[in-house]
């Protein structure tokens, strides 16, 4: 039975615009439907908040935040959000409709994927997450159900419903509720309720494991058991279940799902670099030991519990046994007198000398060992590396006894390009010799070039400015003939200028030609008509025709006529040539009928008069004006017939 038949949302018109169709998916907070946008005549996806949450102001705010957060992302691998609203107390938002299935459905059908296919899908997922992380957003619910596989081969990440602008760490718990899907929650989300970009990386690593193995790494009878395993158990290497998986793929999974979030890649952009190195190795059919070492190095430097050598535990024994150990028989009476006491003391000291000597030697050894451990032993201190050029790290590493690994590049206004901005562990911290210190190298000041905007529509120009990490400043609108209405004439600063993030780019946008009122110039001499129209920026074209009513050289008519227009419009003027004169044809000797036809065809009117000698022959014997004389077209030619 189709479950949508009894769904009251099916068939409903939301916001007077979206006609709700079949149900697509149902999640923890909302249900997604296929819908028709009647205004734009297109298919969209509509997400409707569950009724039990609609009355909760906090959930409604989170739902509205989803639209604002996701709308900030413009990326081919992110499902676009179009609109949000509320209809009769039902909050909803509309999104891009992606026909196809989900990664979850694909895994159910194929169980597990080949390494190449798994990395291809993961690459596009990480591109979407990288765009979010660069915009300061954390998805917080990365899972196969939120990865859409389009029928056209596209891969898009959906449901940024738990995303929130990141400032430091982001709390995942709201009103005592742990937000997210337990199978993909990072340990810190479970233990401390915080999530940053590394939590998304963890979830992406879990998905990679699931694609390679065909099962989740942590299973349990209840969500609590699964969460416990995330906190207390490492994700196993995929090759333990599926032999033949390359070591660098194991490394990808283990590095991304490390329980210590400081070990994971800093964000999706860093993880994506590792994934693309792995894809290259797969494509070439070779192993990549260097990549494997980079990914699994943290496994070889996990701290071990400190051991104190040569220290014996405190011994607790009954007094009688102790007395027996030093030569005093148990239960013997105490010797009396000073002599006896003195002799006993001497014997006691003699017996204790070897013990005391051994103890002294032990203390010296312990002290020496402690000094060795603190000095030249297996420990060292992280050197001050901030401000050091990347080219000098090898020399500094040799002197300090640590190994530097560049974890990423970051923008810096303070540190020149190619110098270290920060390190982890931080300078002066104690660490094992030979251990790895991650450093972040300056990319120099964060600068973005102003894109070429001239000639683009204002909407497209705004999109490019936002995509370049800049913002639109002032917008001046001017009339112009050279650039079409709504298009950018120029920008300030000009294209190519390097600006800081969020610097304003000012636009000058065309309003198109300036409106003018076209006056009437009919009847005016041509020169006067031009003098009237030229200052208005109108283009004048002329043609001529004969006119019996308008003097030669004056305007007979104009097109367009008087009324509204724009600078640059063309006004066509028809100028009078005055009356038209033609030579009168010779019709003498012709019959009256023929003569009348010839003169009428020539454009003249005919008047026939009988001669005084008229005999009924109807032959023309005279005409006025005479043959060859010029006469105005339409004038009367008088014929005399006999």
Summarize the structure.
The chain is of the alpha+beta class. Helix content is 30%, strand content 26%. The chain has 6 domains: 3-96, Phosphorylase Kinase, domain 1 (2-Layer Sandwich); 101-300, Transferase(Phosphotransferase), domain 1; 379-442, Trypsin Inhibitor V, Chain A (2-Layer Sandwich); 447-510, 2-Layer Sandwich (Trypsin Inhibitor V, Chain A); 515-576, Trypsin Inhibitor V, Chain A; 581-641, Trypsin Inhibitor V, Chain A, CATH 3.30.10.
Helices and strands: which structural class?
alpha+beta
Through-space gap between termini: 108 Å
What fold name goes in the CATH topology slot of the largest domain? Transferase(Phosphotransferase), domain 1
CATH class membership of the largest domain: Mainly Alpha
Shape: elongated
Strand-residue proportion: 25-35%
| Helix percentage | 25-40%
Which spans have pLDDT < 50 for at least 5 consecutive residues? 165-179, 302-346
Gyration radius from CA atoms, angstroms: 47 Å
* CATH H level, superfamily name of the largest domain: Transferase(Phosphotransferase) domain 1
